[in-house]
Amino acid sequence: MTVKLPTLDGIEEVSSDYSMKLLLIISHVPSENTRALRDAVIRGARHADISGVRVRALTPFEAGPDDVRAADAIILGTTENLGYMSGALKDFFDRTYYPVLEEKQGLPYALYIRAGHDGTGTLRGVETIVTGLRWKEVQPPLICRGDYSPEFATQCEELGLAMAAGLEAGVF
Fold first, then answer.
1. How many Å apart are CA 34 and CA 69, to the nearest integer?
2. What pLDDT was estimated at residue 161?
3. Are 3 and 34 contacting, i.e. CB atoms less than 8 angstroms apart?
4. From the CA atom positions of the chain, what is the Rg in Å?
5. What is the CATH number of domain 2-169?
6. How distant is the alpha carbon of residue 105 from its chain centre?
7. Exposed, middle or buried, 6 (CB in 10 Å: 0-12/13-18/19+)?
8. What Å distances lie between residue 64 and 61, 117, 137, CA to CA?
9. How far is residue 164 from each of residues 35, 96, 109, 157, 167, measured CA to CA in Å?
10. What's 17-34 look like in SS3?
11. How many Å apart are CA 145 and CA 134, to the nearest integer?
């Protein structure tokens, strides 16, 4: 059974089969290009070969501690803003850090960054927080550097697929 849930970007269909593992995608999408990257991650995670994973995609402003508590794995997506993560993702961490700190240690996560420059400050900021949360990085961070390229969407789709496949297979 599929349920339709409202999001800031429209309506999202989510399977209501709670025996399946939940992959939570939290991504800041302030532009058409960043929405394309988020959509590519979702497309990969919902690949036809993946049947044991539910996917839920939210913006950082929509997501909260209960969403993280329900997740079996998480993909974070952010822009590089002034050499740091987006304020939206930082706000998400500010609101969820302590409420999930103890019970979500070891949560598998992956990260993608849309960086106009090099993304290193953004990566360092996110890694500092997830290290404190004791989340487990299961894929190297994907940094989409420089001018936008359609190749970024392909890389994001592969990230979503790999994360969902690993979750379904019980690798993490």
1. 26
2. 98
3. no
4. 15
5. 3.40.50.360
6. 17
7. exposed
8. 8, 29, 20
9. 19, 23, 11, 11, 5
10. CCCCEEEEEEECCCCHHH
11. 27
Give the Cα separation of 140 and 128 in Å (integer): 15
Tell me the per-residue pLDDT of 20-31, one tens digit each, with 9 for 90 and over: 999 999 999 999
The total number of residues shown for the chain amounts to 172
So what's the pLDDT on residue 13? 53
Q: Which residue has the tokens 């999202």?
A: 12
Three-class DSSP labels, 64-94: CHHHHHHCCEEEEEEEEECCEECHHHHHHHH
What's the CA angle centered on 72, arms 172 and 16, to 5 degrees? 135
Specify the pTM: 0.90
Phi, psi of 63 (to 5 degrees): -80, 150
pLDDT in tens, 129-172: 999 999 999 999 999 999 999 999 999 999 999 999 999 999 99
